[in-house]
Amino acid sequence: MTFKRKATPVAVLAVAALALTACAQSDRDDSGSDTGSTSGSDGGTSTFTFGAAGAPKVMDPFYATDGETFRVTRQMFEGLVGIKAGSAEIEPELAEKWEPDASGTNWTFTLREGVKFHDGEPFNADAVCKNFERMFDQNPAGQVAAEYWSGTFGAFKAKAAESLYKGCEAKDEKTVVLSVTRPTSGFPVFLSLDSLSMQSPKAMDAGKANEVVAQGEGFIYPAYSKAGVGTGPYKLEKYDEANKTVSLVRNDDYWGEKAKNAKVVFKIIPDESTRRQELEAKSINGYDLPNPADWKGLETAGNKVEIRPAFNVFYLGLNPTKNAKLTDLKVRKAIYQAINRDELVKTQLPEGAKVATQMMPDTVSGYNKSLEAEKYDPAAAKAAIAAAGGLTLNFAYPSEVTRPYMPNPQKLYQAMAGDLEAAGIKVNVVTKPWNGGYLDGVDANAFDAFLLGWTGDYDSPHNFIGTFFGSLDANNFGLAKHSFGTKLAGDLAKADAIVDEAERTKAYEELNRQIQEEYLPALAISHSPPALVVGEDVEGVVPSPLTAEEFSGVTVGGK
């Protein structure tokens, strides 16, 4: 998943939003509401072909959960709130500005005028409310499939009393009020999520967008999900499943600056080495997550390795549900002391990676700058493990995967397992494919210890430590087995509900201190800057810390 931050105390929020809006409008659209200021003939003629690691799941972002789907839908859909290019900051998108009432629960959004969906239908306040009511009112299968709604607003209409979402009111064509049941640091920042993009109500009705049907462990999606209709700079031309390509064409009726290229093609190439070969052969113009070991060689060959700011955390999860000795803070700390993280970062992670001091990167509000990294101390670790009567860990790592925070799971695992064994810990090796038992195993508490990480969905501390430790039951760290579990989950909920930003930030800073010094339910290892690579004749790619690049500003060969 992926999110954000905003604000100052409530009274200042409106002023900040207004100032931000002025900047955003001048950057994105000189004309404000003129949708015909730039014709298709003024755009470039190039095609940008990107090597995708996997196929999109659906063309309706509301039911999407994976980066490969969002990479495609992001070019076609927009939300009320957008993301500033190259950062994790929010900015106006389909809403020009927004402000809360004194309670922080009723938010007035002023919409951009002159915007149309790809099918010609107008975007207005009524369309916004129809979108939110559509998302809120899901059948049982849709409630399971729509993971990002449940991860942000919580419950659906069937359990309305438990939902963060309260309602939507169209005041006039360009004014809409969204109401939530309580103030939260996540709203409105999580409206920047691709899953919460605005879609054509007419097209959704015609394609029966909500008629999701469960089948086995998956879903059958309705006709609409094959060709969703948004407001973005590109429209879907064709998803050719046989030839494994998705083709998008420029939306010449786009409300803002038109795309600088005529077409974007996503060529699905699962194997990373094959993607590199195709880039070298110039059959694609770029691809994501090149192996850090290849960065230098790619650049030497004339390509551009675009490094994203780190917005992630790589951690070692510990599960006292499987191993009772892990309820002992001294044992958990000994495991931390046993790992030579400085050497790990230097030898196993890409340039620019940092040793973590807490379970979030330093770009997120609530990061505690006073915390220092736990020092590598194998002697102290060995003594603590001996005093505990020894320790055996069923320690798992994933295969068949590369993650931004974990470029080579096996090598990272081997280095860490070696450090643990040197401290007197017996390690039983467990490995499973990422989507072939590993993630399910983590969720099922199958391992004593495991490697995992998180790339933020938006700039909010709740999206990091709240996601990890905010639920006593729905977590991977056996919080219910820890004496501090109930207090930690409760304190995180209280911090998220603080309206004043300065007070909220201070609360999260203290929670980060407690997590690292008093609780230690998981061991933060590092933060790594992932990359994407493009050919030497590609211009205009802006790397995003959220891996949320938009391709409308890209040209190939100057065309």
Automatic annotation (TrEMBL):
GO cellular component, one term: periplasmic space
Family: Belongs to the bacterial solute-binding protein 5 family.
SUPFAM superfamilies noted in UniProt: Periplasmic binding protein-like II
Signal peptide start and end residues: 1-24
Chain intervals for the UniProt region annotation (Disordered): 26-47
UniProt keywords, alphabetically: Signal, Transport
Pfam families according to UniProt: SBP_bac_5
Biased composition (Low complexity): 33-47
UniProt-recorded name of the protein: Peptide ABC transporter substrate-binding protein
Single Gene Ontology MF annotation: peptide transmembrane transporter activity
Domain Solute-binding protein family: 89-475
PROSITE patterns: PROKAR_LIPOPROTEIN
Gene Ontology biological-process annotations: peptide transport
